[in-house]
């Protein structure tokens, strides 16, 4: 059951509010303890500062922070468009990530005493930017992937034999018109997947190493039915952390999707969808 914008905003506010409340409590205890022992007072001061900063940063209006969820809920409440609200919050999130990285650089150059704070803010900005990438891909999958079956995103995939040396298949696998992975076959049966990013370490070992030595066995990969929405493949791939997901038709593997190929194809589908909508409105 969908959560109302007001309830979503209330739930999102809970985390930052708890951090700020905890920080305030630690600050009160610090004011009582500073006249006594130095070490407990110093620890309470650090705890208060960290909790307050964490709560305030979490209120910044950008995804995936709680402030971004609050902003999304507010925009959805005012305008009624969930997709547009997410896009605005993601844009604010990018600005927040750039702001934190810029502030980190300023602190690192300002004074050696501010180096620790600068490093922490830099790590926070980098983490926020990395999280934004996944949030953007999730939004793309949610808006486009629900109407496209997973099988339609497979595209042209290389098929190589398990005993074929990887030196022979490198050019095929890295071809621009193909998805960045190959299905590894033993006869006609798919037994594994070889992704482009696995080639470099394998080639450094031995160019005559067979594909079966460098591949990821098919049984280690999550699976999704070819007629299931592409968003299901995307979410399963993200949740599993696997390098690829196998697309099946009945008991037969008909292809595989890596995160890079899936996100790229979903963006192409979204672009085509936007063009079609613009043509109809024109």
From TrEMBL:
<keyword id="KW-0812">Transmembrane</keyword>
<dbReference type="GO" id="GO:0046872">
    <property type="term" value="F:metal ion binding"/>
</dbReference>
<keyword id="KW-0862">Zinc</keyword>
<keyword id="KW-0472">Membrane</keyword>
<comment type="similarity">
    <text>Belongs to the peptidase M50B family.</text>
</comment>
<dbReference type="GO" id="GO:0016020">
    <property type="term" value="C:membrane"/>
</dbReference>
<dbReference type="GO" id="GO:0006508">
    <property type="term" value="P:proteolysis"/>
</dbReference>
<dbReference type="InterPro" id="IPR008915">
    <property type="entry name" value="Peptidase_M50"/>
</dbReference>
<protein>
    <recommendedName>
        <fullName>Peptidase M50 domain-containing protein</fullName>
    </recommendedName>
</protein>
<keyword id="KW-1133">Transmembrane helix</keyword>
<feature type="domain" description="Peptidase M50">
    <location>
        <begin position="47"/>
        <end position="96"/>
    </location>
</feature>
<feature type="transmembrane region" description="Helical">
    <location>
        <begin position="38"/>
        <end position="60"/>
    </location>
</feature>
<feature type="transmembrane region" description="Helical">
    <location>
        <begin position="12"/>
        <end position="32"/>
    </location>
</feature>
<keyword id="KW-0645">Protease</keyword>
<dbReference type="InterPro" id="IPR046342">
    <property type="entry name" value="CBS_dom_sf"/>
</dbReference>
<keyword id="KW-0378">Hydrolase</keyword>
<keyword id="KW-0479">Metal-binding</keyword>
<dbReference type="Pfam" id="PF02163">
    <property type="entry name" value="Peptidase_M50"/>
</dbReference>
<keyword id="KW-0482">Metalloprotease</keyword>
<dbReference type="GO" id="GO:0008237">
    <property type="term" value="F:metallopeptidase activity"/>
</dbReference>
């Amino acid at each position: 059951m969908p959560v109302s914008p007001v309830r979503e905003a209330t739930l999102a506010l809970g985390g930052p509010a708890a951090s700020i409340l905890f920080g305030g409590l630690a600050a009160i205890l610090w004011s009582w303890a500073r006249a006594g022992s130095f070490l407990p007072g110093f620890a309470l001061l650090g705890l208060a500062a960290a909790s307050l900063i964490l709560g305030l940063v979490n209120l910044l209006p950008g995804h995936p922070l709680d402030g971004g969820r609050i902003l999304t809920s507010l925009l959805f409440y005012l305008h009624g468009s969930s997709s547009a609200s997410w896009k605005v919050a993601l844009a604010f999130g990018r600005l927040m990530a750039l702001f934190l990285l810029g502030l980190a650089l300023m602190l690192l150059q300002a004074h050696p005493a501010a180096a620790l704070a600068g490093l922490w803010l830099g790590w926070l900005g980098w983490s926020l930017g990395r999280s934004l990438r996944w949030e953007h891909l999730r939004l793309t999958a949610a808006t486009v992937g629900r109407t496209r079956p997973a099988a339609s995103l497979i595209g042209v995939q290389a098929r190589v034999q398990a005993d074929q040396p990887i030196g022979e298949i490198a050019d095929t696998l890295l071809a621009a018109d193909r998805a960045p992975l190959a299905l590894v076959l033993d006869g006609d049966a798919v037994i594994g997947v070889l992704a482009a990013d696995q080639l470099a370490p394998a080639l450094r070992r031995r160019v005559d190493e067979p594909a079966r030595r460098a591949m990821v066995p098919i049984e280690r990969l999550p699976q999704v039915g070819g007629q299931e929405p592409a968003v299901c493949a995307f979410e399963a791939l993200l949740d599993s952390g696997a390098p690829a997901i196998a697309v099946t038709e009945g008991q037969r593997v008909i292809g595989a999707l890596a995160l890079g190929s899936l996100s790229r194809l979903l963006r192409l589908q979204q672009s085509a969808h936007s063009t079609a909508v613009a043509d109809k409105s024109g």
